[in-house]
User: Fold this.
Amino acid sequence: MPAAFPLFLTLTGQTVLIVGGGELALRKARLVAGASGDGRGARLVVVAPDVHPDLAALAAEVRRRPFAAHDLDGVTLVFAAGEDEDEAALVADLARARGLLVNVPDRPALSTFIMPAIVDRGPITVAISTGGTSPVLARRLRARIEAALEPGLGRLATFLDGFRAAVRAVKSDETARRRFWERVIDGPIAQRFLAGDEAGAHEQLVKVLNAAESAEGGSVALVGAGPGDPDLLTLRALRVLQNADVVVHDKLVDDRILDYVRRDARRVYVGKSKSCHTVSQDEINALLVREAQAGHRVVRLKGGDPFVFGRGGEEMAVLRAAGVAVELVPGITAAVGCAAATGIPLTHRGLAQGITLVTAHGAAAEGGSAEPAIDWTALARLDHTLAVYMGLSKAGLVAERLIAAGKAPGTPAAVVQNGTRPDQTLVVGRLADLGALAAGLTGPALILVGEVVTLADPAKIAASDIITDIFTTLSSTPGRLGDTTPENGLKAAV
Ligand code: SAH
Assistant:
């Protein structure tokens, strides 16, 4: 089935021919009648020797006889929905030869158009096509969309339409108009309308429209995009992204998330990699201030959470100092995302009393560097799961320092690369092997150190010669994992 071109057809005043008089023909007739409704619709003509009474009732004209070529005269659209397959093929051929739109139910090869699955919130219509690949999937999608769209949405659209001329008169600027509508639709007015208080919504909309227009300044939303999987975006992040005029993002943000950005929004890539800074932090800060002061709604999109090793705090401070409105939208940080994607609980009774998130950025620092030295002794002493960000290239060093500070070399450790993404890799071993475990990985990768690593989902662990038989060793070490046996060695002690 070739890709189909989606369009919505206005059938007002057009003639639609239905060849066939049975149930199938009736279903098509109902769709046509439903889509054109309120007397302004298509003129329905039915040709068949026997016509179902309900179908006859919908039709403007019924021709009780077999199909003839001249039935196509003056017609825009044809359904060949009779029981006779040869007749349907003939109708389709003749219709195509005349350049008419024709549909033969369940025979896409004969049809020039197919009927999508429909969610009807008149005047809002959502049409779904799977390109003929899976009608069941189409129905499932329809159910999901049905559930997501409020029943009163169609009436809301009509209500808003009634105000369009008034809004255009008050707000001549297109951007200002768009924002006005977005505020109405996302805000209390639409909520009130959908909740059934249509008079209240009307009154409030009139009031807002009459109120002197306050000067609209720009704003910046610091948005966490999560660890990669677009499903892990928050609903708020999605809404803010879709409303943005400008999106400033870096390398960690997955392309599939950028697909949610409005197509006419500007995207600015300020990707940073460890050694080559494409755009400096000062330049990014200045860019955010400049764009917001130009009146744009700016989204600063960051991997994970903006406030976890994301320099979100610095950007927030600069924006506040410049008097720019800042909205903060949290995201799922790498440690939390990677934990869920590998089956490693970050805290677990008897195994980890807490979580410590650290960056290995300053791991090599011993004075001299701008980064303060890490307190390895404190980290080694804590009965915590340790999540090390930006630690891939220093994995061996991290292990060395932790062991020197008293952490047991046999402590389970994991490296999760591209966590939550389709190309996620999980390797596990002992702390002493961390350098070797990380070798060959290119990141982004998160290091997890702690007993909870033994709970990792075995199916997620990458096969590698480096990976030791840590589970067997650990589960056979008395007292180490409580009541586990070699068979259920991965089960937690409780
Ligand atoms: N603000 C981000 C962290 C930015 S620092 C957050 O909250 O997650 C960049 C580091 O995050 C990387 O070096 C890596 O350690 C970690 N990271 C980010 N995304 C990751 C992913 N999908 N898988 C593994 N680690 C990731």
Notes: The chain has four domains: 15-115, 153-210, 219-332, 335-493. Residues 227-228, 252, 302-305, 308-310, 333-334, 338, 389-390, 416, 418-421, 443-446 surround S-adenosyl-L-homocysteine (CB under 6 Å). The chain is about 35% helix and 15% strand. The two ends are 55 Å apart (CA to CA).
